[in-house]
């Protein structure tokens, strides 16, 4: 019973959605449902197998009661751009636990979240007057997997979500929606029908293991191929006739007492098929109540013994509902061509359900034709013809054959190429007195009689058996005789004779060879009837089938290939000319979706690379969505900053990269980026700059590379490569400020102009001008940028720790300076002397040590890692020692390098 | 109708720029040939369904950029392949010599079980031939590979070479597939049993009297 409540939830689509749980990077597909009981709500989370069909395929994992502590918020992941059609991501929190879910895009998810939020706000309104108790959740504990199912609504729970690791593999397949539908449907079916073996005995085989083994993405494709094959059936099939013997016999609960050969073996040549139907096989109440009868094997044997002696027959199937039985035999050689056989039964008797009346049916495929055979026993009594019409309709509606592919809807009778319908249809003769009827029969005036036949009349009115054909009746009515004789009913009721037992067909290429009753059989109050049909069956020509099949596969392949996302790029190669330090350059690549489907694009990283592009490059946007026929312009931006400049300056790296533009489920495109970089003193090391006697861009690239290698290894030959004391570029900037900006107010505090910085940079790198261009503030900023861009700060990283440790001790600080590499020591002394000089003019420039100190401290004593507050304080403290004037520090700036 | 299980394989076309990898693919999947050479700049793929030993095999064929500057990037695609075509142009001695380099890259980056075949394309251009068939044969033997000379232009040996590689991949993965197939067969056998039960659900008498 517990399950029924689940079923209810899952079958109500508005309250259940498919989702993907994201747990510690493990994605798992789940079903989530909102369950309501006594105005309390909880979320039920189920894991499910692929292609879940029955209740067995879903497992309750998790129950999250919607209490005051519950919340659900929509989250947007920072690394995922919001695109149209993206999944909705929500975080469900409950007490101290968290669960992240991805719901598929669409109104259904929205509706669901709305319901959940409403349930929660209801709880909040009542809080704290009334707390939900969740007593009803207790019983689900048994159902759900593992011990850790129900999260207690009261008291903190220590159960961590991390325990919730499942064996099932997670995958966001395209089939998800489909799965959910089938779960809902099939469960609904389980709920809606009260199954009772007393009434129905058809076994449903719920196993669909083979389906699970199949990769789901092929399911759709297989159906497509099937569909196409069906459409092109004429191309590879041809018609061949087979004879079908159909028989119907109401045996009035009797045992077989005589040979059935006169009925079953009446044809000259043996028929290919036997479909033999009985009604009233057993009238005992045991048969009625337990659907069990010893007469089944007796009549089966009687039939088998009386089949045409000139052929060997294989028994194929028996189906019985109380007294309605259908037997199916086929010539041995045809058995191999019968497939996809299913049986169904439907009771239309007492209460419209019991099996005293109703029908049994067998469906099968013979070669390429679908055939359905129905044996029925419709409602009795002359005046009840409308009830019989209704029974017919109920049978047509309620007989539903399971399909091999469980995702396909069940097959009804009328979906078959050929429908053969036999049985005690119970239609009588209307508007005639019994004597008149008997007189007409004796005159063999069946034509007049037929005009009074209820079935013929109802069929003429097209209210029953629409589309069916019945052959001409030229045998006398088969009901009702005194048992054991050919005498009409002599009982008190003295029933009017009628053609109760009938055989009809529906379909193409069917010809009746014979339609007759068999008067010699006297066991029952009915006479058996037989019909011999010649039915054109579609046979497959293997050769042309193969051709057609291959053609279809080819077509679908092509379709599929056409649907692979595809774009065209305006260009695939980009060259950036004369790229300079801190100078932005951009070019645009236009991406046009020339495929037949919308697509999602993204630049993806290459093997062993941390990011999709080199640090000096960005693509904007780097991912997105493109509608069919749509275009997007992507800016490719190059910007060399202090972290990328050193390797480019030294020639260790070039401006070269290849971007990989990836389309989801599609191709990859390469975009190659090249550029010529103009090396700069910004981002070059002090040691290298000291070795460069010319402006950096005036030197051949190879020399720069060679010198920077030398400066690194420090194996320079002091004779040939006598380095300058300090870099000339530094001297130029400091000297400029020394000359013109000593008294400049707010020096180092006001920003410079970007354009002027570029001029200053070019001047330093090319030596084009003797004096620096730009305002004092721009030069000051250039100086700061220069220091900031040094790959190794003035106080090298290796000294950083030590400097901090001794920052309180002035003499130790000075001691450290004396052991710095020479050019670093020179630069340090030069800069501190300059700063002291500035401080002398404090009256004009309003600078003091507490302003200048921090600005330069963080540049000269740069941290290799992120600094904390104490470190920052110590860095400032360190520099303060040098901003106090001492005579020995003086005069260095009076000695500029050549 | 017996159910078939599907398998999906990834095959990769490798070789110098201009040897005709894209043309081989187009000929095989679309039966088309475009004589003008447009360099593939990136990685393209197409799908094709084949039937091998009654198994429906769907193959995804990846066509890679052959130009040297992209080779560091295309290498990252190797590890997803189950089969690799090493393609050279019979009218280009150079492209043939480069096969050694391609093969060693494959050894380094592709999965161990990967299947390889050697393809000498443009066999229709006999008058421009620089690589003798024997040379191709010899190299293929040295590497233990199958060898085909093909022409995307005349459609010579195209289906043969693709089918052959698919077969090799299928064989190499036979064990895994048999596991899958084995359980499938069990299912089929079960279905047969159910059918037989249906036959015999009467009493002993009837069982004697009916056969199948």
TrEMBL record, chain A:
One of its GO terms (biological process) is phosphatidylinositol dephosphorylation. Residues 699-886 form the Rho-GAP domain. It is found in: Cytoplasmic vesicle, Phagosome membrane; Early endosome membrane. GO terms for molecular function: inositol-1,4,5-trisphosphate 5-phosphatase activity; phosphatidylinositol-4,5-bisphosphate 5-phosphatase activity. Residues 155-165 have a biased composition (Polar residues). SUPFAM superfamilies: DNase I-like, GTPase activation domain, GAP. This is phosphoinositide 5-phosphatase.
Automatic annotation (TrEMBL), chain B:
The keyword Cell membrane applies. The keyword Hydrolase applies. CDD domains: Rab15. Gene3D superfamilies: P-loop containing nucleotide triphosphate hydrolases. GO terms for cellular component: plasma membrane. Its main location: membrane. The small GTPases Rab are key regulators of intracellular membrane trafficking, from the formation of transport vesicles to their fusion with membranes. Rabs cycle between an inactive GDP-bound form and an active GTP-bound form that is able to recruit to membranes different sets of downstream effectors directly responsible for vesicle formation, movement, tethering and fusion. RAB15 may act in concert with RAB3A in regulating aspects of synaptic vesicle membrane flow within the nerve terminal. PANTHER family: LD44762P. This is Ras-related protein Rab-15. The lineage of its organism: Eukaryota, Metazoa, Chordata, Craniata, Vertebrata.
């Amino acid at each position: 019973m517990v399950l029924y409540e689940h079923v209810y939830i899952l079958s109500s689509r508005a309250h259940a959605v498919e989702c993907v749980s994201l747990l510690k990077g493990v994605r798992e597909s789940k079903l989530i449902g909102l369950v309501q009981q006594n105005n309390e709500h909880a979320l039920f989370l189920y894991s499910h197998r692929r292609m879940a069909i029955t209740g067995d395929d879903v497992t309750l994992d998790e129950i999250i009661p919607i209490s005051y502590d519950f919340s659900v918020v929509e989250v947007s992941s920072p690394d995922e751009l919001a695109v149209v059609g993206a999944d909705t991501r929500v975080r469900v929190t409950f007490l101290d636990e968290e669960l992240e879910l991805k719901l598929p895009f669409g109104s259904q998810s929205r509706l669901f979240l709305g319901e959940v939020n409403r349930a929660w706000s209801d709880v909040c309104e009542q809080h704290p007057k009334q707390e939900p108790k969740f007593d009803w959740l207790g019983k689900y504990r048994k159902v759900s997997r593992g011990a850790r199912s129900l999260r207690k609504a009261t008291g903190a729970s220590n159960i961590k979500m991390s325990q919730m690791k499942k064996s099932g593999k997670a995958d966001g397949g395209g089939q998800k929606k489909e799965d959910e539908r089938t779960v809902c449907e099939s469960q609904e079916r389980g709920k809606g029908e009260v199954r009772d073996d007393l009434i129905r005995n058809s076994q449903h085989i719920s196993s669909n293991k083979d389906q699970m083994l199949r990769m789901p993405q092929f399911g759709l494709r297989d159906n497509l191929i099937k569909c196409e094959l069906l459409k092109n059936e004429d191309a590879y099939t041809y018609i061949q006739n087979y004879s079908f013997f159909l028989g119907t016999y109401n045996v009035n609960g009797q045992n077989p007492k005589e040979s059935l050969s006169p009925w079953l073996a009446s044809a000259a040549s043996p028929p290919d098929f036997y479909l033999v139907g009985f009604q009233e096989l057993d009238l005992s109440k045991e048969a009625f109540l337990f659907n069990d009868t010893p007469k089944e094997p007796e009549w089966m044997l009687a039939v088998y013994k009386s089949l045409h002696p000139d052929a060997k027959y294989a028994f194929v199937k028996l189906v019985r509902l109380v007294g309605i039985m259908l037997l199916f035999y086929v010539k041995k050689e045809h058995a191999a061509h019968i497939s996809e056989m299913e049986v169904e039964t439907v009771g239309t008797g007492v209460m419209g359900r019991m099996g005293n009346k109703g029908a049994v049916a067998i469906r099968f495929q013979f070669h390429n034709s679908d055939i359905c055979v129905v044996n029925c026993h419709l409602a009795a009594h002359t005046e009840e013809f409308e009830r019989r019409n209704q029974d017919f309709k109920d049978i047509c509606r309620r007989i539903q054959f399971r399909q091999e592919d469980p995702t396909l809807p069940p097959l009804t009778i009328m979906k078959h190429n050929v429908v053969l319908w036999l049985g005690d249809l119970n239609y009588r003769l209307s508007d005639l007195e019994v004597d008149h009827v008997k007189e007409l029969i004796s005159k063999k005036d069946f034509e007049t009689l037929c005009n009074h036949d209820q079935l013929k009349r109802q069929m003429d009115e097209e209210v029953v058996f629409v589309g069916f054909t019945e052959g001409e009746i030229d045998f006398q009515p088969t009901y009702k005789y005194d048992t054991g004789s050919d005498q009409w009913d002599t009982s008190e009721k003295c029933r009017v004779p009628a053609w109760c037992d009938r055989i009809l067909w529906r379909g193409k290429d069917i010809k009746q060879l014979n339609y007759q009753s068999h008067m010699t059989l006297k066991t029952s109050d009915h006479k058996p009837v037989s019909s011999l049909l010649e039915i054109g069956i579609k046979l497959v020509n293997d050769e042309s089938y193969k051709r057609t099949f291959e053609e279809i596969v080819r077509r679908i392949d092509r379709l599929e290939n056409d649907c692979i996302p595809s774009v065209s790029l305006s260009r695939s190669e980009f060259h950036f000319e004369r790229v300079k330090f801190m100078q932005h350059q951009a070019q645009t690549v236009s991406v046009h979706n020339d495929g037949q489907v919308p697509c999602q694009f993204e630049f993806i990283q290459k093997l062993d690379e941390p990011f999709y592009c080199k640090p000096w490059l960005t693509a904007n946007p780097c991912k997105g969505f493109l509608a069919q026929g749509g275009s997007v312009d992507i800016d490719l931006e190059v910007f060399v900053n202090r972290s990328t400049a050193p390797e480019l300056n030294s020639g260790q790296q070039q401006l070269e990269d290849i971007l990989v533009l990836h389309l989801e489920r599609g191709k990859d495109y390469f975009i190659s980026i090249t550029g010529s970089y103009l090396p700069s003193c910004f981002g070059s090391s002090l040691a290298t700059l000291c070795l460069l006697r010319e402006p950096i861009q005036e030197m051949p690239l190879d020399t720069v590379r060679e010198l920077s290698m030398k400066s690194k290894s420090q194996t320079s030959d002091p004779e040939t490569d006598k380095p300058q004391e300090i870099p000339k570029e530094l001297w130029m900037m400091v000297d400029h400020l020394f000359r013109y900006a000593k008294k400049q107010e707010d020096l180092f505090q006001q920003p410079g102009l970007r354009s002027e910085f570029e001029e200053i940079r070019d001047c330093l790198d090319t030596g084009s001008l003797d004096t620096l261009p730009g305002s004092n503030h721009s030069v000051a900023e250039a100086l700061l940028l220069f220091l900031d861009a040094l790959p190794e700060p003035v106080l090298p990283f290796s000294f950083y720790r030590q400097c901090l440790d001794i920052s309180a001790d002035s003499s130790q600080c000075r001691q450290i300076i004396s052991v710095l590499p020479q050019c670093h020591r020179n630069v340090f002394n030069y800069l501190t002397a300059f700063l002291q000089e500035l401080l002398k003019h404090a009256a004009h420039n309003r600078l003091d040590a507490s302003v200048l100190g921090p600005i330069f401290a963080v540049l000269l004593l740069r941290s290799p890692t992120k600094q904390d507050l104490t470190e920052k304080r110590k860095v400032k403290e360190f520099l303060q020692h040098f901003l106090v004037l001492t005579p020995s520090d003086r005069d260095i700036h009076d000695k500029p390098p050549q | 109708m017996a159910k078939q299980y599907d398998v999906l394989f990834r095959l990769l076309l490798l070789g110098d720029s201009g040897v005709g990898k894209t043309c081989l693919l187009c000929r095989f999947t679309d039966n088309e040939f475009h004589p003008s050479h447009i360099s593939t700049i990136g990685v393209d793929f197409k799908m094709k369904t084949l039937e091998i030993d009654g198994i429906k095999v769907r193959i995804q064929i990846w066509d890679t950029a052959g130009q040297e500057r992209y080779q560091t990037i295309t290498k990252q695609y190797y590890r997803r392949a189950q089969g690799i075509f090493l393609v050279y142009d019979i009218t280009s001695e150079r492209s043939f010599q480069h096969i050694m380099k391609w093969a060693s890259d494959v050894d380094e980056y592709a999965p161990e079980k990967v299947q390889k075949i050697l393809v000498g394309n443009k066999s229709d251009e006999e008058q421009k031939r620089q690589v003798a068939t024997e040379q191709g044969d010899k190299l293929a033997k040295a590497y233990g590979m199958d060898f085909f000379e093909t022409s995307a232009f005349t459609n010579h040996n195209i289906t043969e070479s693709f089918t052959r590689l698919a077969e090799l991949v299928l064989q190499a993965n036979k064990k895994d597939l048999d596991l899958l197939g084995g359980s499938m067969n069990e299912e089929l056998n079960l279905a047969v049993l159910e059918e037989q039960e249906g036959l015999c659900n009467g009493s002993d008498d009837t069982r004697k009297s009916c056969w199948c």
